[in-house]
């Protein structure tokens, strides 16, 4: 029987890690930190669970001579509340690079149990953000053994701090993660998804209708201009047959045709399909000119250049108006 002088009368602080002992966690860092603290503080560490890291951790603990570290199999669900309540401090860990891939769900049980958490992992993951926002735990960088030592030392030596963090943990759980709140949040997400799905066909039909309207308008305008430009020479007013009176209608018609085709081909009339619209107009005015002899009219390069000039001017006006319209919308 040990003599009274050799009995350790220091209060024992129990650290609990409950869950998967997997490769996505920073458990080796925790074991090495406990080794540094075991000579100064009375600690009891429980690793409860299974996983690929269990055997390496057992070997590491044995190699460091850590008698205070115990490994236990997972407890059944009805035994989880007692296990969570047995921990003075709960350990949670996550390796860098796993953000968005895994979330250590054990945190929510710890919050519900009203216990403080020491988290070893990246600062930009969900666990770290919850602990910082609620003030219910300590976040330390992954693989930083000294930071884990400092965090554990403060929690072990400050029971009042542990109690404060425990109260904040329970408050955080009740305000954000209770069953009723979680189910309501899931239901809200599903309802929003269904609502958006129901409205998407209406938007698609509207966009489809608008696109076809402008495409039909472009085709009708093209046909009308081709018909008018192929009227026999005798039906054309005399003042439109020579000089600027002949070239101006060419430029105006080609410019209007260009704007309509841009609206028909581009998404909501935006700039992306301007190149395609311009090629369409070039084809139309070229076809218009080379078929002029069929109705007894002359085919000239001047008319064709007037058409191209009108198309280019229309695109220039459109390009100049886009920034202006954008600034106007931002100011509304």
Structural write-up:
- The protein is α/β, with parallel strands linked by helices.
- The protein folds into 2 domains: 4-179, Rossmann fold (3-Layer(aba) Sandwich); 199-331, no CATH class.
- The chain is 60% helix and 9% strand.
- The chain has helices at 27-37, 54-63, 80-86, 106-113, 126-134, 145-157, 159-177, 179-229, 244-265, 274-290, 301-331, and strands spanning 13-18, 43-48, 69-72, 89-93, 117-120, 137-140.
- The chain has a 6-stranded parallel sheet with strand order 3-2-1-4-5-6, sandwiched between helices.
- The protein is rod-shaped.
- It starts with 12 loop residues before the first strand and ends with a helix.
- Residues 324-332 have low confidence and may be disordered.
**Outline type:** rod-shaped
Q: How are the strands of the largest sheet arranged?
A: 3-2-1-4-5-6
Q: Biggest β-sheet: count, sense, barrel? A: 6 strands, parallel
Distance between the termini: 85 Å
* Helix and strand run: EHEHEHEHEHEHHHHHH
Query: What is the CATH T-level topology of the largest domain?
Result: Rossmann fold
- The level of helicity is 55-70%
- Looking at CATH, the homologous superfamily of the largest domain is Glycogen Phosphorylase B
- Rg, rounded, reads 38 Å
* Computed structural class: alpha/beta
**Top-tier CATH class of the largest domain:** Alpha Beta
Q: What count of helical segments does DSSP give?
A: 11
As a percent range, the share of strand residues is: 5-15%
Number of domains: 2
Number of strands: 6
Low-confidence stretches: 324-332
